[in-house]
Amino acid sequence: MQATPTYTDEELVNRLRGGAADALDALFRRHYVELCRVANRFVRDENQAEDIVQELFVALWEKRSTLPPLTATAPYLRRSTRNRSLNYLRDRKRIPVDDGELPETLAAETGPTGIENFELGARINGAIDRLPERCRLVFTMSKVEDMSHREIAQSLNISTKTVENQMTRAYRHLRAWLALLALFQVLI
Amino acid sequence: MSLRSHQEIDRLATGYGQDFTPDVEKGLARLHRNIDGERRQAKVRRLRLPHWLSIAAGVLLLFTAGFFLLSSGNTTFRNDTLEAMAVELPDGTEVILQRGSSLSFGGAYAGAERRVEIEGQGYFNVVKDADKPFLVSTGKTTLRVTGTAFNLRVEGEELEVEVSEGSIVLDYGDREVSVAAKQCGISKSGELPTMVEAPNLNRHAWRTGHLVFENAPVAQVLATLHNNWDVEVDLPTTCDYPISATFNKKDAAAILETVAKLGGMTCTATGKNTFAFVGGCDTNVGE
């Protein structure tokens, strides 16, 4: 029942263009998890993230006959997901227009038990999430989504200078958080 | 207290959001529901497959074919045209529907199973899907396949299926009859289905134009022509002679002419699809 795993993404898109429903299923199975993660990094809501990716695949099906020939399908799907996620945030006025406030103390928000109970890799999630929203988006787009400063600036309608400032801010905050974490580890 | 570098932050950041793993199969099921209406819209379209080229010229597009979408959620195709019609079902299964035949399926098609009804004749190329059997029922008999190609003729509770690729099963109560490639399954009302060999796939002739008879009684030849092209032939009752011949044409009248000649008779048209063999029947011709 599984669609033939030997097809490349590009072949699947070609078959999809011809109306093959199993090609859509194969692309879905291959990319759904990763695309949901991409969307979730933007919207920070797992249900909404799945909705966004669902809509992307519905659109792929509806536009199948007019899909352009794709040489790089995975990046195309990722880019579409990012754009849809940003549109989602924009529609809900969730793209910040100012810098936002940094939380005063990290420890006060997290609490020692919170830090002890999670692994370092998982804790970075919390640290990034506590960045002011614009700072978080810029940092995520740059470091997790590998977008260039120019792309980020265009997506968020800000200057590249602002992107750089936000990156500096994000690093300062995250470094402070990691230092604090190291201190806890020494104390424990 | 160590000072963490940008590199370490970058490395840790790549794990951001990796803790979310949605259920792919649930998501896929939801996608299918989302595109339900669009995807399950069956299509009548031109066929591109080379082995169907022979009928491509006769295949009609949606707007010229008799096509109804009923309010009950059932989709019915009626081929009211004079040519074969190609229909693509929601799962990609392709059916070539003979003129005068109709095919229908419900809104739940390709849910747990793929169930269709047919009255008349069609050639089916069923997309493989072991989880969703393709089913056609008539009377107590149900034809069940997972993916194969066959010619199916249904008239009332009579069903005749000649398999060209793979195999099918005819279920009858708790009994089942398997029919493999180049075999024919026959089901009549109230009887256990039977299987006969069909090495020449003569039941596909309306579509392929290929007929082979090896020492076949003339009555059987005429029945085959009738089932393929709906032609009725008036044959002198005492007339019986065997036919050995190969035909490569879809012109029933031309084939009938040859069949009549092999019996020392001539064939004349008496109506739109009715013919009569006239002249002295030479029962020894063809022996």
From TrEMBL, chain A:
Secretion signal span: none
Pfam families named in the record: Sigma70_r2, Sigma70_r4_2
RNA polymerase sigma factor 70 region 4 type domain residues: 126-174
Domain spans labelled RNA polymerase sigma-70 region: 27-94
Assigned keywords, A-Z: Sigma factor, Transcription, Transcription regulation
Family the entry assigns: Belongs to the sigma-70 factor family. ECF subfamily.
Identification of the protein by name: RNA polymerase sigma-70 factor (ECF subfamily)
Species in which this protein is naturally found: Neolewinella antarctica
TrEMBL record, chain B:
Segments forming domain FecR protein: 83-168
Record keywords, A-Z: Membrane, Transmembrane, Transmembrane helix
Taxonomy, superkingdom: Bacteria
Keyword Plastid (UniProt): no
Matches recorded under Gene3D superfamilies: 2.60.120.1440, 3.55.50.30
Stored Pfam families: FecR
Membrane-traversing stretches: 49-70
Protein's name according to its UniProt entry: Transmembrane sensor
Organism: Neolewinella antarctica
